[in-house]
Amino acid sequence: MLNHYFFTSVTRISDLEETPFEITRLPFSDWQAGDYVSTMTQDISGRLRNIELPNGRMAEIAEGEHLIGALGVRAATLEAVGSWASAGEDLSLDLMTPAGLIGKITSKSPFLRSPVSLDYIGHVTRAGKKIQMTDFVATTDTAATSGSNAFSLPIILIIGTSMSAGKTTSARTIVRLLKQAGYRVIGAKLTGAARYRDVLSLGDAGADIIYDFNDAGLASSICPAEQYRTALRQLLARMATEQADVLVAEAGASPLEPYNGLTAVEEVGNNVCFTLLCASDPYAVAGVSSAFECEPDLVAGGAANTSAGIELVEKLTGIKALNLLEKSSIPLLSKMIINKIENWQRPEV
């Protein structure tokens, strides 16, 4: 009997939906992050049962469905923590994000519904060779050594004090105002755990081109720093081939978490003309600014939701804060960003 597979959005960079493959059980010692695997859904009662398809659409799954995703790692401060490496002898796994990030959850917020549990069926293979996300990444001649140097656009960098701090919402606002000003915009998410929704929303806001770390062959950006650095350089080299004026880049979670946010900031630093820090509260602004020994150009997010929050941010740090959900803030935001873009000159490296 032929199996009907649900392909999750981590497979969107692959040809798995169009080209035949086999499923082969491999010993645990052969498993790696980024491997495409076949799993079968188990207990779904009361669980998060929606998955994200390659086009970004959500679909509800039932028990006994065959699902193709990728092994990876997640370390979400407000939701769940897990890794493919934490699988036990029974090789039971969990759907760690709806996008198909697969591993074994070891810690979960009590406020988060349990994920769908999965049985490992086997690895996706062709001619006896396992298929990985990196098999579908187009590289350039300069990517491995100088991808960040080859990238010459100014960057609006959006970082946060934590996940769910308002980064993607702020990124959409910035994309919209840049499009209204006539710029051709790339929207990108440089770090995080697999989820196509966020970067798709930048396209909905008007970004002409969108990328994320999945396009560099990573199911999540939790990996050794040098592996991530190489992947990011490949991604930047691809972006450098696009006809665009500016990159709006979000670093998911916060730069101090294990998602390689700090590495991302280091790699793109010479191109950053404006940094927006989205913070959950005013005191977090002071903490992140101190940890990075740098000062953002603007603070937004929950810390700036009210006039009291804005006043406290400015009192504690001296940094300007704006509530970007208020229409009255947009003219000043636009003026600040466009002034930075127009006066930006990339330092010699």
Structure description:
The protein has two domains: 5-133, no CATH class; 142-343, P-loop containing nucleotide triphosphate hydrolases (Rossmann fold, 3-Layer(aba) Sandwich). It is 26% helix and 26% strand. The protein contains eight helices and 18 strands. The strands form three sheets. A six-stranded parallel beta sheet has the order 15-14-16-13-17-18, with helices on both faces. The chain has a five-stranded mixed β-barrel with strand order 3-6-10-9-11. A hairpin with a 2-residue loop joins strand 11 (117-126) and strand 12.
Fold blueprint:
Layout: E1 5-7, E2 22-24, E3 36-41, E4 50-52, E5 58-60, E6 66-71, E7 73-75, E8 80-83, E9 92-97, E10 101-108, E11 117-126, E12 129-130, H1 143-150, E13 155-160, H2 167-180, E14 185-191, H3 196-204, E15 209-212, H4 225-239, E16 246-251, H5 261-268, E17 272-278, H6 282-292, E18 298-300, H7 307-317, H8 330-342
Parallel strand pairs: 1-6, 6-10, 13-16, 13-17, 14-15, 14-16, 17-18
Antiparallel strand pairs: 2-11, 3-6, 3-11, 4-5, 7-8, 8-10, 9-10, 9-11, 11-12
Helix pairs in contact: 1-4, 2-3, 2-8, 6-7
